[in-house]
Amino acid sequence: MDFECDEDQVALRQLATDVAGRVDDKYWQDIDQNYRFPSEFWASLAKHDLLGIAVPEEFGGSGRSLLDMAIAVEALSEGGAGMEGGALFVSGPVFGGCLLTRHGSRAQQEAYLPGLVSGDLWAGAFTEPDAGSNITMIRTQATRKGDSYLINGQKVFISQMTNSRRIVVMARTAAYDAGHRTAGISLLLGDLPSPAVEARPFKKMGNHFMDTSQVYFTDYEVPVENVVGEAGNAWAPMYDVLNPERIILAATAVGTGNLALRKAVEYASQRQVWGRPIGAHQGLQFPLAEARVNLATARLQVYEAAWLYDRGRECGVQAAMAKYAASHAALVAADCAIQTLGGAGYISESGIERHWRNLRLNRIAPVTDEMTLNYIAQHDLGMPRSY
Amino acid sequence: MRIAVFVKQVPDPSGAGRLDPATNLLVREGVEVVLDPGDAYGIEAALQLAEASQGEVVVISMGGERALEVVRKAMAMGAGSGLHVFDQRLGGSDALATARVLAAAVSRVAPDLVVAGTESTDGYTGTVPAAVAELLGWPSLTFAKHLELSGGTVRVQRQTPAGHDLVEADLPAVVTVTGGINEPRYPTLKGIMGAKSRPLEQLSIEDLGLDAAGLSPQQRVVAVAPAPQRQAGRVVEDDGSAARLIADYLAELKVI
């Protein structure tokens, strides 16, 4: 067992910290308050080769690993970019990069990966009003017509629709078969914007840097060769997107939790009450130290899950554990940070409450706490399937 | 076009520097070390010139084992190769000995231009680049806030208290650049990974054809004292005459 980062990982972590440090908290507050996509920051990620960390070199990436992506994401978030800086990696490096690197055809890789490395944003349209974790119940249909599929249906809670250039759509290409529920589902790759795709963004609690929409497909045409993997057999490719998504969002949470903690510690060291910094009191130290313990252990689970993924091994349980541990540790850390700052923590300008609002999402998405735990109960503890 | 750029590894300027009471020199062991922030401007200036002329940049540094890190960093930013002069006998070198070593390194690299920061963030002598130029018999252009090459000449805007002078010299030459001349880039991931496969030479005093005896420090720090505390300013109560008092005070200082 080796806990040492190699030379490149140390340099990568430093690079990510530097890139995050080039942007100040005012920038993120502006993004939050104006519901704006951080296009300047996204361009900087592309410029410094961070979007192509795990994309093979022959398609313009750096040919490294999901673990390296997790290390970079954590450093970006912790370095000041918070949830915004890390969660962005789902909208390209994960939805497009992880999917096509493992399951894309050569032609798909050549056509789409170089653009992804240089900054194409990707949306992933999986969830439907009546199909969340029960994804086999999706009703969006892709109907074959000559050399194309025509997609019709409705999706919900889809991120980054306004700015995405590409979209991965999960749709039924064959009718539901109760005996083999996962069969007949395909992943199809399309270009945006398109008049056949309409997105209606929601107002929401946090994460204003990415829009979240209800999406309607009306005869959205994609060529047959844009099916990723085998038509009707999306299960394996899907898990090579969902597991990295959990891992990257867990890395984001760990970094963001540590960022909130750092802001709290700085405040507690400076703020004097009755002649002493408030941080000198154990009553303030203990919650912050406890949050640190939970973030540190969550991080180890994130790294292990990524390490397993990179070796092509089963990582569903570890990714679920990483996601659960990191979501909780980070949310509690942000909450303790608000408590440490007192009234100041509740004010947007101090740049703490935003982390709490953003991190609250991680207990719900990309999968809820409850579905995460019943997955662990079933697949790790060997308990009966509960749903 | 081949451009050499000097870099130095210094104790992190954001930390509090400590002096060794025995030598009166800065403690360099056991402290966080970084690329001298002033050097980043030199590297960026050299890279921009090289990019515009399809040229190459060679990084030169003299320093301890860890100076290798800053040479690598400059290479990760885009320099094509590096030369690290590393010799235990050079520990505690003064500015002149450093200049002799760097001049020998420059002769080996044979560039058309040498770019350096104005002064280091630890020693602050600001004399090394000019001394290198003198030892090589090359023109020295200092405090450049703008720098351009045309044909066989280098032209700089030399920062002055009043504005700038236009200074021009034939190549080869040594130029020092001011902070703020550009915005230094960060290395990219590919830059970091690519730098490892580019040539980086480590040379000793003898490799440079120098004699260690001629490099012993000629300078000794006999005493150091803490910088004087800043005096409290003068407070003017405004009874209607404050503007006049302030103007008189500034005139007395010859500021206005």
Biggest sheet of chain B, strands in spatial order? 11-10-9-12-8-1-6-7-13
- Global shape of chain B: globular
Shape of chain A: globular
Total number of distinct structural domains of chain A: 3
Instruction: Output the radius of gyration of chain A.
Output: 21 Å
The parts of chain B where pLDDT drops under 50 for at least 5 residues are none
Q: What is the annotated CATH architecture of the largest domain in chain A? A: Up-down Bundle
Structural class computed from helices and strand pairing of chain B? alpha/beta
CATH architecture of chain B: 3-Layer(aba) Sandwich
Q: Beta fraction of the residues of chain B?
A: 25-35%
Order of helical and strand elements of chain A:
HHHHHHEEEEEEEEHEEHHHHH
Tally of DSSP helical segments of chain B: 6
Strand arrangement within the widest β-sheet of chain A reads 1-4-5-8
> What would the CATH topology of the largest domain in chain A be?
Butyryl-CoA Dehydrogenase, subunit A, domain 3
Element order of chain B: H for helix, E for strand? EEEEEHEHEHEHEEEEHEH
The helix fraction of chain B, in percent, is 25-40%
Mean of the pLDDT scores of chain A? 96
Give helix % range of chain A: 40-55%
Percent strand of chain A: 5-15%
Descriptive account of the structure:
The complex is a heterodimer of chains A (387) and B (256). Chain A has 387 residues and is of the alpha+beta class. Chain A folds into three domains: 7-118, Butyryl-Coa Dehydrogenase, subunit A, domain 1 (Orthogonal Bundle); 124-231, Beta Barrel (Butyryl-CoA Dehydrogenase, subunit A, domain 2), CATH 2.40.110; 236-379, Up-down Bundle (Butyryl-CoA Dehydrogenase, subunit A, domain 3). Chain A has helices at 7-21, 25-33, 39-47, 66-87, 93-103, 106-117, 235-270, 282-310, 316-341, 343-346, 353-359, 369-379, and strands spanning 122-125, 141-145, 148-159, 166-172, 185-191, 197-201, 212-223, 227-228, 272-273, 276-277. In chain A, the strands form three sheets. A four-stranded mixed beta sheet of chain A has the order 1-4-5-8, with helices on one face. Chain A has a four-stranded antiparallel beta sheet with strand order 2-3-7-6, with no helix packed on it. A two-stranded antiparallel sheet of chain A has the order 9-10. In chain A, helix 9 packs antiparallel against helix 11 and helix 9 (316-341) packs antiparallel against helix 12. The radius of gyration of chain A is 21 Å and the shape is globular. Chain B has 256 residues and is an alpha/beta fold. Chain B has one domain (2-215): HUPs (Rossmann fold, 3-Layer(aba) Sandwich). Chain B contains six helices and 13 strands. In chain B, the strands form three sheets. Chain B has a nine-stranded mixed beta sheet with strand order 11-10-9-12-8-1-6-7-13, with helices on both faces. In chain B, strands 2-5 form a two-stranded antiparallel ribbon. In chain B, a hairpin with a 2-residue loop joins strand 9 (140-150) and strand 10 (153-160). In chain B, helix 2 packs across helix 5 (189-195) and helix 3 (95-109) packs across helix 4 (128-136). Chain B is globular. The mean pLDDT of chain B is 92. The chains are: A alpha+beta (387), B alpha/beta (256). The interface between A and B is small, with 14 and 9 residues.
